[in-house]
Amino acid sequence: MEWLNRMRDALDYMEGHMTQPVNMDDIAKAACSSPFHFQRMFNLLTGVTVAEYIRKRRLTLAAQELAMTPIRVLDVALKYGYDSPEAFAKAFRKAHGITPSAAREPGTVLKAFPRLSFHLSLKGDKEMDYRIVHKEAFTVVGKTMKTSSRDGENLRKIPLFWLECNKDGTYDKLLELGGSVHDLLGICADINHEQETLTYWIAVESGEPAPDGYSSTVIPAATWAVFTSVGPMPHAIQSVWARIFQEWFPGTGYEHSGGPEFELYPPGDPASEDYRCEIWIPVLKKS
Questions:
Q1: 112 lies in a domain?
Q2: Residue ranges in the chain modelled with pLDDT below 50
Q3: What is the pTM of this model?
Q4: Do 140 and 270 share a domain, yes or no?
Q5: Per-residue pLDDT tens digits for 98-149
């Protein structure tokens, strides 16, 4: 499959440039993809960001060099992109649990983060319904938090953010601001794959001014691929997210356009077996 070969080409490019500065444009070009779409695909398919993968691979290779050659720690640090021995030692200890110097001792146990590989898994026995929606720009009002995608921080903090908003009356206030629209939105915006950060919104579509303690922003006009999730949260929607990036994107002529993406939650019991919600992803047709 073409997309599989492209992902392998991107991995080959990364492996061949581990001692050089990360150039996301060139990595994505190897996959014949935009930088944003490639990084989003990589993250959803592998569970790690491109930056995190490169960081772990570099520390794996650095440990091998320290264990097998007389190269100086400073030279290894510089070779793998660290500005100082102190920064390298901190990262090395986090990855391996020991100092770089200790890696030279006979019998020392080191951790290895192997090179990833992509394999074709034949699926498609279950249909995947979606619709394409053209929507003009719209304004949302809500509360925001900044988080990191490094080491899965966002997966821990975002559910806590929802719990907090449920307890402090934010839900009721947002529903009031939404007027006749009672759908809550969970929006991922300002996604910066290189810095591994994003801004997460719990919001409603509304033309009302943002009250004190709330923010507003405009979601730009876009073409959206919309997918329906049926089942209890969060397992059902997480399963749909996985299928979108493992099956739908590789099997269609679309890619992520790079804008905000969101989940739409209608009223109802999110724990019920028949709860329906939606994933909206901005897309464009590949040229």
A1: no
A2: none
A3: 0.84
A4: yes
A5: 999 999 998 899 999 999 987 755 555 577 889 999 999 999 999 999 999 8
User: Is 172 inside any structural domain?
Assistant: yes
Q: Kindly state the helix (H) or strand (E) to which residue 222 belongs, with its residue range.
A: strand 222-230
Is residue 254 in a domain? yes
Q: Are residues 18 and 137 in the same domain?
A: no
- Locate 139 and state its tokens: 């304004």
How far is CA 218 from its chain centroid?
22
Identity of residue 228? T
Residue 193: per-residue pLDDT: 86
Measured over all CA atoms, what is the biggest interatomic distance in the chain, rounded to whole angstroms?
A: 70
Based on the domain organization, do 139 and 278 belong to the same domain? yes
Instruction: Quote the CA–CA distance of 214 and 197 in Å, as a whole number.
Output: 21
pLDDT at 125: 56
Question: Is-contact 96 103, C-beta < 8 A?
Answer: yes
**In-domain check, residue 157:** yes
Split into its structural domains, the chain has a count of 2
Q: Are residues 138 and 273 in the same domain?
A: yes
Percent of residues in the chain assigned helix, strand, coil, to nearest 5: 40, 25, 35
Dist CA 131 CA 248 (whole Å): 12
**Residue range(s) defining the domain that contains residue 281:** 131-285
If asked whether residues 172 and 239 sit together in one domain, one would say: yes
- The reported pLDDT for the residue numbered 122 is 53
Element at 198 (helix H, strand E): strand 197-205
